[in-house]
Amino acid sequence: MNHRWLEWAKQIQAIAQTGLAYTKDVYDRERFEELRQMSVDILAHYTETDPEKIKLTFASDTGYATPKVDIRGVVFQDGKLLLVREKHDGVWALPGGWADIGLSPSEVAVKEIKEESGFDAKPVRLLAVLDKKFHGHPPEPYHVYKLFILCEITGGSAETGIETSGVGFFGEDELPVLSVERNTEAQLRTMFEFMRDPDKSVILD
């Protein structure tokens, strides 16, 4: 499916947000506000979502427009990969989420693993930095970079969290239904490649 309208809306929103952050001219500010409203109208038209909700989630940021950062912790045990079942959609993903202000990428990975799976972990190495637009994820209103960080379990035990309803380890040939919004089957198979080849180079989009 062609989602050019979504890319246009995202670009218009980014231009408007950056313009509003730097303009000193009252007339330019009005034009940038009109552009931002245009991006909201595009999303509202094609998604049938309440424009006010779109404004809050998509067109409310300030400052220079930058991509969001999603961080995933990659943990292996006995040749199997740690996944958690998301309450939001009932399917499985690597533990992780949006980067937090004040925490490093490694700290976020460790925090998310603990909160979503119950395991204590330590970071080992960066495996991949991916641009979500290249990897078959469903369309969304944000431009997202995904960081995959290999971690090792140091303690704790399997325990669900506020956002998860299941915790498990899965072999490459027994992957459950995945949350493709968060991670794709191809990405998880790439993580198994790193398990088999610890010297595999970091993947960088």
UniProtKB/TrEMBL annotation:
Pfam families the UniProt entry points to: NUDIX, Nudix_N
InterPro entries reported in the protein's UniProt record: NUDIX_hydrolase-like_dom_sf, NUDIX_hydrolase_dom, UDP-X_N
Annotated ranges, domain Nudix hydrolase: 66-192
UniProt cross-references to PANTHER family, sorted A to Z: ADP-RIBOSE PYROPHOSPHATASE (PTHR43736), DIHYDRONEOPTERIN TRIPHOSPHATE DIPHOSPHATASE (PTHR43736:SF1)
Family: Belongs to the Nudix hydrolase family.
Entry protein name: ADP-ribose pyrophosphatase
Annotated source species: Paenibacillus tyrfis
